[in-house]
Amino acid sequence: MATRIGFTGDVMLGRVVDDRQRRRPVDAVWGTVLERLRELDGLVINLECVLSTRGRQWRRTYRPFHFRADPDWAVPALERAGVDVCALANNHVLDYEEAALRDTLEHLDEAGIVRTGAGETLEEALEPAVVSIGGLTVAVIALTDNTPEYAADGASPGTAWIEIDRENPETRRRAGEALERARGTDPDLLVASLHWGPNMVEEPPVSFREFGRWLLEAGVDIVHGHSAHVFQGVEVHEGRPILYDTGDFVDDYAVDSRLRNDRSFLFVLAVSEAGVPTELRLYPTEIDDCAVHEANSDAADWSRERMRELSAPFGTTFQRDGAAMILSFED
C-alpha cells in the first residue's frame, strides 16, 4: 500500500492569524482541510514564522514584516494537523532575532516535530530532518536564497543559505554537503525543500529549473518549492516531481485579485514500499478568515486551470478525480 505524504506552501501563523487563534480552537486554523491532513501518513510544511513570545524585531537591516506566533496554541495546532517536518530555511526565522529562533527550535524539538534548514550554526542548519513515515525513512533538507543577512555561519544562528545557481562552486559545495548528510541516513525518500525567489512571481527562472533538475539527478526524489506566495507549475524530471512553488497554505496576507495568492493546493505524494514516487494529487485550497479551507467550486476550477497552464510548458499534464488533479509517474 502506498504511503501518502502531504506538502504545503507557506504556513504563516503570526500577526492577524496569531490574534484570531488566541480566541478560537487551536485547530481552527486548518479549517475544512483538517480531516484530510490527519488522514495523511506524513506532512511536510514550510513554517513561515517563529514560535515564541520573546525577542525584538530585527532592525539590523530593513525588514517590512515580522512574523511570530504564540507557541501555546501554535505548537498544539501543528500537532493536531499531524505535521512531521518543518522546513525553516526561509526569510522569517530571525524576524525576532536569536532568542525567538532558539525558542522555535526548542518548541519543535519538544513536540517531536523534526526540523531542518535553520539552527544555532550552519552545521546544524544543514543537518537533514529524518523521520519514519508509513514504514519509510524520509530525509528532508531545506535551503533558501532569501535574506542573506539571516544566513547561519560557523558561530551564529540562522538559515542554510545558498545562491540558486548550479554552476556556482559554493552552491554545489553547500547543497552537496546537505545532500551527502541526508544520503548518509540511508533514506527511502529524499526531499529538498527550497524557499527560493521573490514574491508574486508566476514562473520559475531558468536558474531554478536547472538547479531543480540537478537536485533530482543528485538523488532527490521531490523538490518542494515555496516563497512566491503563488503556486507555480509542476515539472517531472527523470520520473520525479519538481513543485516549483506550492504557494501559500495559511496566512493573513492581502489578496492580489489577479494572482490570487489565497489559492493553492495540498500536494500529496504517493510513495511505493520501495520508496518510489508513483503519483501526485493536488487538492485545491483557499485561505479565508486566516484559515485554510477546501476550495469552493469556482476557486477550485480557477486553480486547476491555472495549474494546467503553468505546467504545460514543462510537458506536464494532469488527470482529474473529483476535486483533485492527478499526475502519475508510473509507466
Topology:
Blueprint lengths: L2 E9 L3 H7 L12 H6 L2 E6 L2 E2 L16 E2 L1 H11 L3 E3 L9 H15 L2 E3 L1 E2 L2 H5 L2 E5 L2 E9 L13 E2 L9 H15 L5 E7 L10 H12 L4 E5 L7 E4 L2 E4 L4 E3 L12 E9 L5 E12 L2 E4 L2 H15 L7 E3 L2 E5 L3
Parallel strand pairs: 1-2, 1-15, 2-5, 3-4, 5-6, 9-11, 11-12, 12-14
Antiparallel strand pairs: 1-16, 7-10, 8-9, 13-14, 16-17, 17-18, 17-20, 19-20
Helix pairs in contact: 3-4
Family: Belongs to the CapA family.
Organism: Natronococcus amylolyticus DSM 10524
Protein name: Capsule synthesis protein, CapA
Short description:
The protein has helices at 15-21, 34-39, 71-81, 97-111, 122-126, 169-183, 206-217, 297-311; strands at 3-11, 42-47, 50-51, 68-69, 85-87, 114-116, 118-119, 129-133, 136-144, 158-159, 189-195, 222-226, 234-237, 240-243, 248-250, 263-271, 277-288, 291-294, 319-321, 324-328.
